[in-house]
Every structure is written in structure tokens, then in C-alpha cells.
Amino acid sequence: MPVDVDAAVISNTRLSDDYSVLALAAPAIAEAAQPGQFVMLKVSRGMDPLLRRPFSIFQRLRDERGFLTGLTVLNKRIGKGTALLYDAEAGARLQCLGPLGRPFEAVDPPAEAWMIAGGVGLAPFATLAETLIARGTATTLFYGARRAQDLHCAEVFERLGVHVVYSTEDGGRGARGRVTVPLEQALARTDRSIDLRLYVCGPTPMMRAVAMVAAAHGRRCEVSLEQVMGCGLGGCYSCVVLARDGSGAPHHTRSCIDGPVFDATRVVWEALAH
Amino acid sequence: MPVDVDAAVISNTRLSDDYSVLALAAPAIAEAAQPGQFVMLKVSRGMDPLLRRPFSIFQRLRDERGFLTGLTVLNKRIGKGTALLYDAEAGARLQCLGPLGRPFEAVDPPAEAWMIAGGVGLAPFATLAETLIARGTATTLFYGARRAQDLHCAEVFERLGVHVVYSTEDGGRGARGRVTVPLEQALARTDRSIDLRLYVCGPTPMMRAVAMVAAAHGRRCEVSLEQVMGCGLGGCYSCVVLARDGSGAPHHTRSCIDGPVFDATRVVWEALAH
Amino acid sequence: MSVDLSVSLGTLTLSNPLIAASGCFGYGVEYADAVDLSTLGGVAVKGLFLAEREGHPPPRIVETPAGMLNAIGLQGIGVHRFIREKLPELRDRRAVVFVNICGTTIDEYVELARILSDAEGVAAIELNISCPNIKEGGITFGCSLPGTHNVVAAVRKVTRLPIIPKLTPNVTDVASFARAAEDAGADALSLVNTFLAMAIDVDTRRPKLTNIVGGLSGPAIRPIAVRMVYECRQAVKIPIIGMGGISDPEDVLEFMIAGATAVQVGTANFVDPFIWYRLLDGLRAYMARHQLSRLADLTGTLDATSRQQAWISS
Amino acid sequence: MSVDLSVSLGTLTLSNPLIAASGCFGYGVEYADAVDLSTLGGVAVKGLFLAEREGHPPPRIVETPAGMLNAIGLQGIGVHRFIREKLPELRDRRAVVFVNICGTTIDEYVELARILSDAEGVAAIELNISCPNIKEGGITFGCSLPGTHNVVAAVRKVTRLPIIPKLTPNVTDVASFARAAEDAGADALSLVNTFLAMAIDVDTRRPKLTNIVGGLSGPAIRPIAVRMVYECRQAVKIPIIGMGGISDPEDVLEFMIAGATAVQVGTANFVDPFIWYRLLDGLRAYMARHQLSRLADLTGTLDATSRQQAWISS
Ligand SMILES: Cc1cc2nc3c(=O)[nH]c(=O)nc-3n(C[C@H](O)[C@H](O)[C@H](O)COP(=O)(O)OP(=O)(O)OC[C@H]3O[C@@H](n4cnc5c(N)ncnc54)[C@H](O)[C@@H]3O)c2cc1C
Ligand SMILES: Cc1cc2nc3c(=O)[nH]c(=O)nc-3n(C[C@H](O)[C@H](O)[C@H](O)COP(=O)(O)OP(=O)(O)OC[C@H]3O[C@@H](n4cnc5c(N)ncnc54)[C@H](O)[C@@H]3O)c2cc1C
Ligand SMILES: Cc1cc2nc3c(=O)[nH]c(=O)nc-3n(C[C@H](O)[C@H](O)[C@H](O)COP(=O)(O)O)c2cc1C
Ligand SMILES: Cc1cc2nc3c(=O)[nH]c(=O)nc-3n(C[C@H](O)[C@H](O)[C@H](O)COP(=O)(O)O)c2cc1C
Ligand code: FES
Ligand code: FES
């Protein structure tokens, strides 16, 4: 059951000209949150902009005694709403609705977990990594970006004990090229007897490419899709993706309640807007 | 020629739950400003609310060397826009267009100046008082409000050397009753040979009452009217008041460019919305 | 003071005037965990055809100043699956269900009405003759006076359920459509549906919606919708359900004063799914402030005598 | 890169597509101190009748979400005083003047056109047949196809000045009105005028405007206006001047891509009287980014082929 919290901004840490990490006081949402779920944020008071914006729950925050106090959002400025969030100051208040959506299915050992993130697609993985590590699952993050300076927050994962594999398109850090380069190498190296689960979030073409790679290697792969969302609760049918049902028939499926996480084989990639 | 300044909020001093004094860095407007003129403020970025709001120029600000640096606005929270102004923090920026409108006609000695203010109608008088005092004109302020705690900023006037006469409806400070009570007493006491000019700003019924009193005593009286304004520049014809022309014929007259200051005898008071 | 928020749409009494707008509340069941459906005056479910429909490809919505465009294309599970899969839960949750129906022919509307009349737990049929997002049917009836009359009259013959045609605002004279619907036997009217509109991505020079055009809803349209309710109130006797941009208690009151008996809330429910509680609180506060014991007494009480004398002629 | 911002409305060439909208820029002279009028593509002056008019008593405007209502009631100094008192200064300032005219009968329109044809410094006549705020004339022509045709045809007979009928959006099928105007000899079209709308003070239960109803303008209406320009672009060959809520360079581009040759800016000019410079800068930046040397090439370039294949049928 989602709740709507009038959440105080605890802090807003600018990581670069367009990335920031926004910490929100919303314990009730943090308690209920599962990896891969999201919140709908009202980025300003008033009607400009009118609609809320969806954001993955990045981290769950705890106080010294370990009690959950809130959550963070990894925000990338791309338009009006994300610009307002980037500019938000501590003390401001934002309506925060959540947790919403279908979470990732976290695997247990001996299965291994490989998370593949492109850019701000890193956001859903901090919570997933925490959950996986807590279960003792060996967890790797393939983290790609255009340039080295666009790789943010990797330390969050390293601190958790996640094995991080970097790639940058300009070769500034880790493998040169798309994130699929080190991923394919790693898949080729990995014994088929090892049970692997792939989790992907990033730009649509990247997710599609990873889904193809995963299929080619016969690996199960979950993707977290980012559609424009009007309500986040199944009310408006704006957020549909074409996804196959049990019988393989494609249907417009609401990504806010039947997703945002989908098994990659369900998605009709050709139909996804880029 | 009005200018539009992207003005920084220097400070916002809350005087009570609904009054604040907002200082804005807008030297170009302060330099050109004449007593009784106003600015149009965009109270927020974005479209909520859409239109600017008119505010009298309260004080002109100077630095230590006496150079004009900006202006203040005496803001009373009555709706959405004035609430946003009340909440504005130092460092914020507001588009500020001005100076606008027809100013008061400041009299010179031996004429005396009587300013009559009701509530936030005090706003245009600080600049007027400064101008009058600089000319050596004997200046009195009749300042009325509902309760003593609603009388703000009187010290600004006392410091300038203005004689301040208070009245409150509950008798908490000065004369009990409307501002017309001490005004009528003073008028009755004042020799007809003394040249007097009355300047009025406040709620419409109060201005109307003062205009009647002034007319009964044969005193010239200028009123500063507050109509809803769309543009402040004569473009929209929203701000009209019914005012008599030279021949006595009433016309809908734009209060943003032909006012906000009108000779009280021109105004068809019966036609003014309360 | 005990306050009475109930309103009557002909034979149907609602506990309060707030109805979730069709297409903005899924089939109602999506919200059942978050909101107690029985606290709403009613729930208008997503527009249903006889058959299942996949609707338009995304993007299906785009935000605009104080509004949004949608071109969902009436995706839906069809009336049979609705009755089987959704209606029982709505019944259990004690929701007052308005079923919004859409057809491409009069026969389809008639067939839908017939099927729903036999189902248990349907409070009223909202006839969607105003969806701007589909080529066939719907709005082609809603933009023609005989079309409107004929659909309503045909459905009237096959059901005793209250029939509530939903009018489009995309017409010159909405009041004439209100009259046509009333003459044909409608029990109440819903208005307005969305305004046909579009938005363009100037960098790609392509429409922002796959469907090119879509329907404008939200606060932006409220002043036009209020005017239309006011016009229809003077044209017909049957109750009006007003909508278009309602976001605050004042907006509900505005529609009621203009002539609405009940209201629907669509877009604002996306922004705040718990809006119902806020609106109900606001209505109660207004009633207390104005010592109003029956909210229904507000309907159509606009005082339209000139606010002040015109002091000059010409 | 040298860029060409000029656009042609038939025989009339403007240095750029930006025109101040009628009723939103006084008689132009009010702005002459603040804005160099010759930098604008044109200035549409406040709607003029033959005689002086006092208009409606205030309040005349009320703000709404991302928009505003106005019911000015066409206050104005009449065509004779305009020619005597305002036109000379406009000429001196090298403004390209569109005179917006309004009558209660066809004869009045004809008379106005005749008078203006003899005046020096009038670039075009904008026929206001769409003002929602006056009972007589105006919109009664604009809401009837023969009415529209007859006014335009009658004015056509008496003037060689470009005639630009201004269409109302308060109709079912705006494209049919565009065709009627074109058939009757219009040189270009302006659209849209404001949407008939209202707002109510719920505490007093009175309309917020003295005139009860008013016209809705501003960003709120933009998506509807863009759709109407797009529809008319497909219906007629004559140039279209698009308007409704333009506030940013992207909005100008949106109207042009939808089919407008030029645009007018009304409400946004109230918010920012120096908007013209910002819009021109934005247009130049867009042209540079897209390596567009002639802005006029943008008109009607919407790529409305489906953005993506529909992967499923039904
Ligand atoms: C489930 C989910 C989780 C998300 N998590 C995050 C996150 O953790 N951090 C983060 O920074 N962003 C995240 N996003 C994307 C984020 O919601 C959008 O960037 C945001 O809504 C854009 O708002 P805006 O007002 O800045 O952009 P707008 O001004 O509204 O639009 C700017 C441009 O971006 C496009 N756009 C708008 N929304 C989306 C969208 N959802 N996907 C792709 N393009 C869009 C628009 O079409 C437009 O071209 C997530 C989206 C979803 C659906
Ligand atoms: C020339 C001039 C100078 C002014 N100087 C000052 C000043 O120095 N300090 C100050 O606090 N205020 C001043 N005002 C009034 C101020 O402009 C309004 O209070 C403000 O516009 C209200 O905006 P809002 O968004 O808070 O109210 P809204 O939310 O827009 O409206 C709230 C209520 O107030 C009414 N209202 C709105 N504008 C006005 C208005 N102009 N006059 C009367 N009622 C109105 C509305 O009809 C509504 O009922 C001045 C007005 C004018 C015309
Ligand atoms: C996403 C969306 C889907 C809609 N679907 C329907 C529908 O299926 N049937 C219908 O009659 N109206 C539909 N509407 C119109 C609404 O019911 C309502 O008439 C309109 O949105 C105006 O109200 P609002 O401004 O409160 O949203 C839809 C509106 C939206 C925004
Ligand atoms: C205050 C005001 C007065 C107007 N007066 C006229 C007028 O006299 N003649 C006319 O044709 N249109 C008039 N209009 C309509 C505008 O010219 C324009 O068509 C409309 O406002 C839409 O553009 P906008 O959204 O940019 O304001 C007026 C609009 C406003 C807001
Ligand atoms: S966002 Fe509304 S249904 Fe998914
Ligand atoms: S405020 Fe626009 S004319 Fe006065």
C-alpha cells in the first residue's frame, strides 16, 4: 500500500552539473521499499509542472541506531522537473508517493547477480545490491557511462562489497566502449554451470542490447523500463510497454504496476520508443 | 522608461504573520522611481501564478555612500502571489519591472502634506515622505489599522521627521475608530488659510470616505487606487477606473498609466468595486 | 452541525458529489488498496468497448501548461472481462460504479447497455460519445445532434439503468447537445470530456503523441468547462455531472454553483491519489463556514445579476 | 551564418514572424518607450469600432491556471481618433500596423475598412469576428459559416489592403470557417481568439468577471490552438497567423511547424513586455542549431507519419 509523504529534503548533494543525490525524510516509504521500486515526486508546489515525476529509490537511509529514516534519489537533470529537483535546497518539502511498482526478484546463492547500469540507470541498484549482499549473493556491477566523470556513486557499491566493472565510451575509465563490451567478455568467461541473473537499467537501446546478449547466452535477465508516467498507480494507462503474456501474445502492459521491472524476454523491444 | 530587472532578494523581514518587507536589488528602478510609483513583480519562476503582481515602491535603498542600490516592498499576504513573496528567501531572484505609473504630486512649503494610510496602504508613503521632507514640507501621516499590532513600520516615518497620528479600530493605539476620526478632527482644527494637500492610500471604502471628507473641507486630495492589473503598461485595459475627464465626462481610465494616483474628485466612487 | 453531502442524480443517490473520472482511475480496483472506494460518491471506470482493445502505441500522454494531453485510445479489457474480473471486487468494496461505454455503432452501445443491465453492481451507464482519441464512433456521435439523440434514444429502450451521456466540449453550442440528450431520455449529463489538442517536439518536428492529436484535460480547461456547465444548466432540467480540471475544494464548489449536481475528478487524481479526503474536508469546511447544512442546495446558485451597475452606457 | 527571419503574408512581408496580439498591446504607442516597435514583425492594435466605446465595468480580468480570462468589452477610441491620434506615431516608429476591427453589422465592417484604406500606414486589416465578450456582432459572424463568408466578401469589395479574418476557436469545425474565409477572398487568417469561459467566486457565489463570461487566453490554451492551426493548414492555402499561449521560442516554432506563417503574442507580453527580444534570440539560436537559413521554411513541416509502427493491431 503506497503512502504519500510530505517529505523534507534532508540534503541535496550535487555530484556534477547535472547529477545530484537528494535525501528525503520518508521513513514509511523506506520501510516498505523493495529493490527496483520507485516513488512519484511532486517536484514543486503548485501547477508548474503539473504532474509528478517517477524516480527509482536509490538508497534507504538509516539513523545511527539503524532505523530507517528516509530514502535518496539519484537525480539527473534533463528537463523542467529534474532541474527543479537539482535546485532543491535542504528544508524544502516535496510530496513523495511510494513505494510503487514491481520489484526485482533478488536471487540467492549459489546464483550470482550481475547488475548492468548505464548512466542514471544506476539508481535502482543500490537497494538491490544491499539486498543481494545481505543474502550473501555474489554481486557484480557493470557500470558504463560516456566519460569517466559521468560515473557517479560507484563507491556506494564498492563499500557494500560489490565487484564493480567500469566501462566508458571514451576509454577514460575501465573498458573502452559500451557496457556490453565487458559484459560479453565476462559472459563468455563464465561457466554455464554457474547460475546467473542479469539486472539491467539504462537507456532503452542499451537495455535492448543487453537483453539480446543475455538471450544469446541463455541467461535470465530483468530490465527496469522507464516510460513516461502519469499516475504511477495503474490509473491512466500512459506508461504501457508492449509485453508478452504467458501465451506469448503481446499486450500494452502498464509499466507502473506490472513493471517497471520486466523479464527481458517479455518485452517487444521493437515497439519501444527510443 | 521602465526596465525589467532580475532582482536578487536582499532580505525579507517578516513583521507579522502576514506582513513582510522585501528588499530587492534593483538600482536602476530605484533611481528612476518617483513617489507613488509601483513595480510589477513576477512572484515565482514558471507559470503558477502566471501574471505579475503590482506593488508600490516602499523605500529606496542606499549603500553607505548614499548610492541607490534597490528598493523595498511592503507586502501583505492575501493570496497566492503575496504568500509566495512572504515566503521568499534572501538570494532568490524575482523579475521586477518598473518604475510604473503616475506619481503623487509632492507639494512644497508653505503647503503642508497630510498622508492618510490604511493598512498596507502605507506602502507608497515612505518615498513620498522622503521627498516631501527633503523639500522642507511639513508632513503628517494619519495611520490607521484594525489593531495596534497591525501598525507596522511607523518608525520609518518618525525617523524621517514625519508627524504620525495613529488610530486603531479597537482603540489599542491612538484614536479609536477609523482613520477618518482623527483626520476630521485635524481638518476642523486647521485654519483654512493653510494650504493642505491630502494623499490617500488604503482600502477603497476608506479612500472614498477620505475623499468625501476632503471635498467637504475643500481640500485637494490625491488617491492611489488599487485595481487588478494585467500588464502595468497600458496594454490590456484591465485596470480601469471610472474617472472624469477635463469636461467632467466619466471614462474608463487605465489606472496603470493614468494612475494609480488620481485626483480624488475625478474618481466616480460609486463605480468602484469594493 | 450535521452536514449532508449527499446528492441525487435522478433515482440514484450518492453519499457525496465526488466521482472518479473515467479513464483516470483504471477500473477502480487499482486504487482499492490506497483509497476506500466507498468514501467516494462514485467511480466511473475506464471506457469499455464490447471487445478488448490495445489502444494506441506510447507515448500516450504529454504534459502541457496546467494540463495534459492524452491519447490512450481506449485500451480496455472489454465488457465481459470487466464484469467477470473487476465488478465483483468493486461490489465487495461497496463502490458506486458508473460504467463508461463506447461503441463504433449504435448497435454496439445498445449491446453494451443490455449486457450491463444484467450485471450486478452497476449504478449507471455513462455513454462516452465524446472520446477525441479514436477515429471510429464515439465523438462522431457526440459532434452531431441527431447522432447524440439517436444513441441515447436507442440505449434508453434497452435499459432501466440511469443513462448519462458524456458530452464533448469540442462543439459550438454544447447546450443544444444537452437538450438533444435530454429529449432522447437521458437521466443526467456528464461534461466535459477532453479538448482536442496537440503538441509538437520542435527539434524532431514530430507530434509528441504517437496519435498526433490527443485530449486536453486538467486545470487549464476548467474555466471553459465551468462555462459549459453553466450554459447547460440553463438549457436542461436533468442533473449535470461537471468536470474539467478540478483540483481543489473550491473547484468542486465552482462547478456546483455553476449548475453541477455532482462532479468528476480526473487529472488531479494522478497528481494526488488521496485527493478525495482533501476535497471532502474542504467541502465540509466550506459548509461550516457558510452554515450550509445540505451541500446539494448549492447547485445552480450562481448569482449572475450584474456585480455592479454599469455607470456609463455605450 | 546569415539568417533570414522574414515571412510573407501574401503581398505583405514582415521582418520576422512576431506580431503583438490585438488587445494585448494597447495601440502600440503605449509600448513605444520600452520596445522598439520596428523590431517586431508587426503590431496588431486593440480592436476598433467606428465609435468610441467604454467597454465593460471592471473587474475585467481574472487569472486562471496558466491562463487568464478577460472581458474588456472592446473599450476603444474608435477608428477616427485612432487614425488621428495613434497612427502618426506608429508610422514614425516604423511599426507594421495590423488594425483589428469589429462591427455589429456588415455595414460597419465595410465602413471601417473603407476608412482605413484611405489612412496612411495601415499594413493590413484584421477582421475581428470572434470576440467572445460582446453580445452584438463579432462572434455572431464568427460562429456562422455564411456570416463569416459574407463579412469577408463585403469587406473584400471595398479594400485592397490585406484582409485577415480572426477566427474563433469556439466552434466544432474551425477548418470549415477557414475555408469559408478563404473562399470569400481573405488574404490570410488569424487564429485563435479566446475561448469562452468563466470563473466563480465561491464565497460570494458571483462570477469573478462583471461580464459573467470572458475569454480564456494564455499557455493553458496553446495545445488546442496548435491543433486548430494544424487543421486549418490542411484546409486552406492562404497563410495562417497562429496564436494562443505563446510564451517561449519553442512555442513560436511549434505553431510554425503546425502550419503558421507568422504568430501573435498576447498574454505573455503582459508577463514580460520585453519578450520580443527573448523570442527573436531563441529563434536565431534554433536556426543555428538546426542549420536553418530561412525561418519561413519551417512553416507546415510537421512530420505526422506515425512515430513508430503499431506493433499490434485491434
Ligand atoms: C520507473 C522510473 C524510474 C526512474 N528513475 C529515475 C531516477 O532514479 N533518476 C532520474 O534522474 N530519472 C529517473 N527516471 C526518469 C525521470 O522520471 C525523468 O527524467 C523525469 O520524469 C523527467 O522530468 P523533467 O520534468 O525533468 O523532464 P521534462 O521537461 O518533462 O521532459 C524533458 C524530456 O525528457 C523526456 N522524458 C520525460 N520523462 C521521461 C521518462 N520517464 N523517460 C524518458 N524520457 C522522458 C521528455 O519527453 C522530454 O523530451 C525514472 C523514470 C521511471 C519511469
Ligand atoms: C498600484 C498598486 C500597488 C499595490 N501596492 C501594494 C503593496 O505595496 N503591498 C501590497 O501588499 N499590495 C499591494 N497591492 C495589492 C497587490 O497587488 C495584491 O494584493 C496582489 O496582487 C494580490 O496577489 P495574490 O496573488 O496574493 O492574490 P490572488 O490570489 O491573486 O487574489 C486573492 C484575492 O485578492 C483579490 N485581489 C487581487 N489583486 C488585487 C488588487 N490589486 N487589489 C485588490 N484585490 C485584489 C483577488 O480578487 C482575490 O479575491 C498594490 C496593487 C496595486 C494595483
Ligand atoms: C488519461 C485519461 C484517460 C481518459 N479516458 C477516458 C475514457 O475512457 N472515457 C471517458 O469518457 N473519458 C476519459 N477521459 C476524460 C476524463 O474522464 C475527463 O472527462 C477529463 O479528463 C476532464 O477532467 P479532468 O480535467 O479532471 O481530468 C480520460 C482522461 C484522461 C486524462
Ligand atoms: C486582455 C485581452 C484583450 C484582447 N482584446 C482583443 C481584441 O480587441 N481583438 C481581438 O481580435 N483579440 C483580442 N484578444 C485576443 C488576443 O488577441 C489573442 O487572440 C488571444 O489572447 C490568444 O493569444 P494569447 O494566448 O497569446 O493571449 C484579447 C486578449 C486579451 C488577453
Ligand atoms: S502511470 Fe498511470 S497507469 Fe502507469
Ligand atoms: S494593467 Fe494593463 S492596461 Fe493597466
Explain the overall architecture.
The complex is a heterotetramer, with 2 copies of chain A (274 residues) and 2 copies of chain C (314 residues). Chain A is an alpha/beta fold. Chain A contains 6 helices and 16 strands. Chain A has helices spanning 27-32, 80-87, 125-134, 154-160, 180-189, 204-216, and strands at 3-14, 19-25, 38-41, 53-56, 60-62, 68-76, 93-100, 112-118, 139-145, 163-168, 175-176, 196-201, 220-224, 240-244, 250-254, 261-263. The mean pLDDT of chain A is 95. Chain C has a single domain, classed as TIM Barrel (Alpha-Beta Barrel). Chain C starts with 6 loop residues before the first strand and ends in a 25-residue tail after the last helix. Chain C is α/β, with parallel strands linked by helices. Chain C has 9 helices and 16 strands. In chain C, helix 4 packs parallel to helix 5, helix 5 packs across helix 6 (222-235) and helix 7 crosses helix 9. Chain C is 32% helix and 20% strand. Chains C and D meet through strand 11, strand 13, helix 6 and helix 7 of C and strand 11, strand 13, helix 6 and helix 7 of D. Bound molecules: flavin-adenine dinucleotide (2 copies), flavin mononucleotide (2 copies) and FE2/S2 (inorganic) cluster (FES) (2 copies). Residues 21-24, 46-47, 70, 72, 74, 100, 128, 131, 166, 193-194, 217-218, 243-246, 265-268 of chain C line the site of one flavin mononucleotide.
Secondary structure layout:
The complex is a heterotetramer, with two copies of chain A (274 residues) and two copies of chain C (314 residues).
Chain A: E1 3-14, E2 19-25, H1 27-32, E3 38-41, E4 53-56, E5 60-62, E6 68-76, H2 80-87, E7 93-100, E8 112-118, H3 125-134, E9 139-145, H4 154-160, E10 163-168, E11 175-176, H5 180-189, E12 196-201, H6 204-216, E13 220-224, E14 240-244, E15 250-254, E16 261-263
Parallel strand pairs in A: 8-9, 8-12, 9-10, 10-11, 12-13
Antiparallel strand pairs in A: 1-2, 1-7, 2-6, 3-4, 3-7, 5-6, 13-16, 14-15
Chain C: E1 7-9, E2 12-14, E3 18-20, E4 42-48, E5 61-64, E6 67-70, H1 78-92, E7 97-101, H2 106-117, E8 124-128, H3 139-142, H4 145-158, E9 163-166, H5 174-183, E10 189-191, E11 195-198, E12 200-201, E13 206-207, E14 213-217, H6 222-235, E15 240-243, H7 249-258, E16 262-265, H8 267-271, H9 275-289
Parallel strand pairs in C: 3-4, 3-16, 4-7, 7-8, 8-9, 10-15, 15-16
Antiparallel strand pairs in C: 1-2, 5-6, 6-14, 11-14, 12-13
Residues 229-232, 234-239, 254, 256 of chain A line the site of one FE2/S2 (inorganic) cluster.
